[in-house]
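Dissemination and training. As part of the outreach component of the grant, students in the summer workshop were shown how a complex can be specified as a set of sequence lines and then modelled as a single object. The example used during the hands-on session is reproduced here so that future cohorts can follow it. Participants entered these lines:
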Amino acid sequence: MTITNGEDELQDQFNQWRAYVRRRPELVASDAEELEDHLRGSVDELVALGLNADEAFLIAVKRMGGLDDLSREFAREHSERLWKQLMLTGEPGDEAKTSRSRRDLVAMLVCAAGAAISIKVPELFGKRYDDSGMFYALNMTLFALPWLAGFLAWRRQAGPRWYGVLAALFVVGAVVANAYPMSEDSKSVGVVATHLPLALWLVVGLAYVSDDLRSSRRRMDFIRFSGEWFVYLVLIGLGGSVLIAFLYGIFNAIDVYPDEFIWNWLTPCGLVASMVVGGWLVEAKQGVIENIAPVLTRLFTPLFTLALLAFLVTIGWNGSGIEVNRQTLVLFDMLLVVVLGLMLYSLSARDPQAPRGPFDVLQLALVVSALVIDALVLYTMTGRIAEYGTTPNNVAALGENIVLLANLTWSAWLLLLFVRRRGGFAAIERWQTAYLPVYAAWLWAVVLILPPVFGYR
Amino acid sequence: MRVTKDLVAASATPIVLGILAEGESYGYAILRRISDLSGGELDWTEGFLYPLLHRLERHGHVESSWQAVAGERRRKYYRITRQGLAELAEQQRQWQTVVDALKQVWPSIGDIRPLFNPLEGTA
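and obtained this result:
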C-alpha cells in the first residue's frame, strides 16, 4: 500500500465521520468542521508517535468519546438548534437546494401577487369589494386557487395537458358562479357559494397529484397538505387581524381613518394571497417542522369521543329524540366532517407498520358513536325526507350526509377488522384515498346540476 | 487524583481566557495546553471545551475566525477580546481572594488532621 492510498482511505474515513456527525441536529456544519479539525490534530499527533493512519484514526475517534455525550453538551449551549427552524431560503451550504427554494420563493411571490391583483380586476368593471357581496362570495376562491394550483403544477413540472385540464375546470367553476341566473336571495346561491370552494379545492388536489395521479401515497400527501394548509391559513389570518387592529389603532391616533384601504384592499388581497402563501409554506416546510394537524387530532379525538358518547348517553337517559330541521341536519353533517377529519389526520400521521394500539380503539369508538348519532338523525327524518328534499339546500345537506355516512360506515368496518387483527392498516388508507373522487363527483354535481334542476331557486 | 466536576467547571473560564490571553489559539491546541499546564491531571473532553468556547464567544469574551491551514483545511481560531480581558482580570481578582483565604486556613498541607474523632461522643 502506498502512502497516497493511506491518505485517501483516511480521507474517506473522515468523510464518513463527518456525515455521521451532521446527522445530529445539535451539531451544525461549522461544529462538524471544528471537531474534524480537532480529530485531525489528534490523528497527526498519534501518527507522529509512530502509529499508522488507520490506528491513529480509530484511537482519535475513541478518545473523542461518544457522539451522544458530545451532542448533549453542545445542545446545552445551543438549545435553539433543537427547535427546528424553517429556513425559507434553504440551508446554507447546500447549493442545489438553495437555488431550488429561491426559485420556489420567486414563483410563489409571482402567484401571490397575481392572486392579489386579479381580485382587484373586477373593480375596473364596477364590482367594488364592499358592495358586491354576492359576486365576491361566489368568486373569492376563483381568484386564489387557480394561482395555487398553477404554483403546484409548476413545482411538479406538469405537462401542458395538465394546465389545460386545470384551466378548463376553473373555467367551469367560473361559469357556474357567474353565468347561472341565480338571484341574490335564492337558495341556489348559498349552495354554490358553499360547495364551489370545496370543489375547486379538489381541483387544486388534482394539481397536487399531477405527478402521479393514481398513487394512493400521493393522494394521502394531498390530504396532509390540505390539513397543514388550513392550519397555516388560520394562523396567517390571525396574524392579519392583529395587523389590521394595529393599522386602525395607530392611524386613528393621527386622525387618519384607513377603512377604504383595509376593507377594499388589504382584506381581499391579503386573503387570496395568503391562500397561495399557505400552500407554498406547506411545500417548503415539508419534513422540516412537525405537522400540526395530526397533533391537533391526537388532542381532540379523545375529547370528541367523550362528547359524542355523552350525547348518546343523554339521549338514552332522556329518551328524547333529535329535533331535526335543516339547521340540525347541516350541524350533523359538519359533525361527520369533523369526525372524518379527525380520522383522516390521525391516519395521515400514523406509521402504517405500527401495531394497533389503544388509540385505534378510541378512533373506532369515535367513528361508531358518530355513526349511531347520524343513524338516529336519519331515522327521525324517515318519512319526512320527501318533505325535506324540496329545496337545493336540503338535497345538498342530505346528499352530503349519505356520502359521509357511506365513507364512515366502511371505515368503521375496516377499523374494526384492524383492531381485531383481521385486516391491515393499509386498507383503511387506501379506502380513504380511493374515496376522494367521490367527494369530487358529489361536490361538482351539487354545483353544476342542483341549481338548474331546481330552476335556480 | 481527579479534580471534581464542580472545580473543573468553576476554573474552566479563567483557564481558557488565560490561555487565549497568551495569543490566539484553536480547540485542539487549547486542550493540549491545558493538559500540559496541569501535568495531565486536567483532562477536558471536546464536549466540554467547544461548547464553552462557543459560550464565551456568545458572551463576547472571545471572537473567532476561520483560517486556512495546510491545503483545503480550515481551522477555527479563537482570540480574546477587550471585554474578555476585563473578565479575565475580574476572575483573577476573585480567584485571588479564594486562594488567599485557603492559604490562611491551610497554613501547610501537612498540618491538616482531624480535630476530634467524629465517632466519639455518640454514646
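The CA atoms of residues 62 and 80 of chain B lie 4 Å apart. Students were then asked to discuss how this feature might be tested experimentally.
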